[in-house]
Amino acid sequence: MVPKPILVTTPPPATSAPSPPLNAVSPLKTEEKPQTQTLKTPTTTTQKAITKPSPSSSTTKTTPQQRVELKRKTNSWVPALMLNAFDDIINNFIDPPLKPSIDPRHVLSQNFAPVHELPPTECEVIEGSLPPSLDGAYIRNGPNPQFLPRGPYHLFDGDGMLHALRISHGKKPTLCSRYVKTYKYTMENDAGFPLIPNVFSGFNSLVASAARGSLSAARFLTGQFNPANGIGLANTSLAFFGNRLFALGESDLPYVVNVTPDGDIETLGRHDFDGKLTFSMTAHPKIDPDTAECFAFRYGPVPPFLTYFRFDGNGKKHEDVPIFSMLTPSFLHDFAITKKYAIFCDIQLGLNPLDMISGGSPVGSVASKVPRIGILPRDAKDESMMKWFEVPGFNIIHAINAWEEDEGRTVVLVAPNILSMEHALERMELVHAMVEKVRIELDTGIITRQPVSARNLDFAVINPAFVGKKNRFVYAAVGDPMPKISGVVKLDVSKGEERRDCTVGCRMYGEGCYGGEPFFVAREEGGEEDDGYLVSYVHDERKGESRFLVMDAKSPELDVVAAVRLPRRVPYGFHGLFVKESELRKVSLS
To answer: Where is this region: Disordered (predicted)?
Structure first.
């Protein structure tokens, strides 16, 4: 039996109704209403997803494999109920969600509320016309928990859901929303309740960590899940390389996905690159537009805290390069490449297990740490040529681009600097990110920093053809505050030397309207750097409607070229990608 679905609707901003219980678990269903949004849960805590087999089932002919599966579920029924009861005790008494940053009633409010899957559904172009170069699919990843959280929940903890707008000229565009069918999603969907604790919100004290660690061990020993098959969410971003399209989350291996000709999204499986990738991988790999090589890394809480690796143009993985000169575990979410180098930022946000003793999170800022930038030849086979440079006060979550100057003797990095790193995970509305251009003279170690804009900007992109090469234009999302995005600005980073704001274009979405990370799609290959379009999903919170917006990246006002009304709202999320029709065909054939 599957538990009855609950409804997720949109609350008025000033509502002070009693909070619903946190200990019930139900699959999510949404009902779109412009002005209301309430999380509804059953009042009981008993799980109905795992049931004893019906007596009448003995009259049904079953295969040996089905009988084994039935026996497994029957044998795990009693342990599941006991462990779910223990989970309720943890979530309601040992570690309830006391902070707003991990209270699901706060985190999942308004357009952050999850939605159900949507099969390919036709959309209406309500303004302008879609340009011919938009031939393929725009796909955006983001968190979308399949069950209402039982206790603490952070924005980063939701199951990955892909929202794809398939554009084929001569046909109406279609929107499709599908979960990435990770091992975690599949096992929990089969069980009917969460099995794996939330990484970002479930270990905020020593007692909570011990309790949830014991619970996870018991679920493993009773056969409810096997962490060797991955516990990742694949909820962060997408990448296309080696003729495959990947959904990515940095706590697991990539998952191969595909967009079918009719616009549906398929999960093809967890990918280990012929057994050469055994652990996790960054959600921000960098693809060289000239060689099709892909560069990536992983980080973790035990040495080596950083490991670098790369793939050739066919997706074949090279050997790992462990970086032991990173002396402490750091939250290394993104990096940059040039034609010669890979560039890493060792920031003040780190992994601090000792903080759990005082009731803190294992991930937090370390005020005494001096941030560093590490530069390694990108074809290195070991870390012997890694150079580290101290850059006080320079903390980045995302990198925008990097390149070389002075015949390779100088490296330039452009990235948003987080000025309030202590709030990066718990109070994102207090975070201010200021885009800077950092010049590093490799021979002398002299570092020069120049602000590009004083506005609160992040989720910035460039023309993908300029990754690793000197570029001029950056398109960044405007935090209002983060994680809400009220518009997009165009920056000319070549003006940084003039010591003034480099904004040369801007479009705000309007009152009550918020978007996401923009993505640049070139009008044609080999054209001018800014000759193309910016695309993003935008949601109108007053009307409860979402649109797909296409903007002219070359114009000072980032003029709207086309707008598509979507059949239902698309929740706010993380990173997106436009995949050309020619690339989608390669995925289908691989």
So the answer is: 1-71
Query: Is 347 in contact with 287 (CB distance < 8 Å)?
Result: no
Pair 345, 284: CB distance under 8 Å: no
Residue 44: pLDDT over 60: no
* Residue 509 · residue 515 · CB < 8 Å: yes
| Ordered domains of the chain (ranges, CATH) | 79-588 (2.120.10.30)
Lowest mean pLDDT among 37-51, 485-499, 550-564: 37-51
Do 301 and 351 meet the contact criterion of CB atoms below 8 Å apart?
Answer: yes
Phi, psi of 42 (to 5 degrees): -65, 155
Question: Which pLDDT belongs to residue 511?
Answer: 95
- Residue 398 in marked binding region: yes
pLDDT at 374 over 60: yes
- Angle 206-221/77-89 helices, nearest 10 degrees? 170
Burial of 68 (0-12, 13-18, 19+ CB in 10 A): exposed
Residue 498 — very low, low, confident or very high, per pLDDT cuts 50/70/90? low
Pick the closest to residue 215 from 88, 45, 116, 325 (CA basis).
88
Do 252 and 231 contact (CB within 8 A), yes or no? yes
Q: What angle do CA 483, 486, 491 make, to 5 degrees?
A: 100
Query: Distance between CA 548 and CA 360 in Å, rounded?
Result: 40
Surface-to-core class of residue 512, CB atoms within 10 Å of its CB (0-12 exposed, 13-18 middle, 19+ buried):
exposed
Residues 6+ apart with CB under 8 A from 69: none
**The predicted structure's pLDDT at residue 429:** 81
What six digits make up the tokens of 200? 């970002």
CB 512 within 8 A of CB 541: yes
At residue 353, does pLDDT exceed 70?
A: no
Mean pLDDT in residue range 274-282:
95
- Residue 333 is labelled as binding a ligand: yes
* 116 labelled binding-site residue: no
Tell me what the mean pLDDT of segment 368-382 comes to. Answer: 96
Mean pLDDT of 44-55: 34
Instruction: Answer yes or no: are the C-beta atoms of 576 and 532 closer than 8 Å.
Output: no
pTM of this structure: 0.88
Known binding residue 575? Answer is yes
Q: Which two tokens stand for residue 141?
A: 């990843």
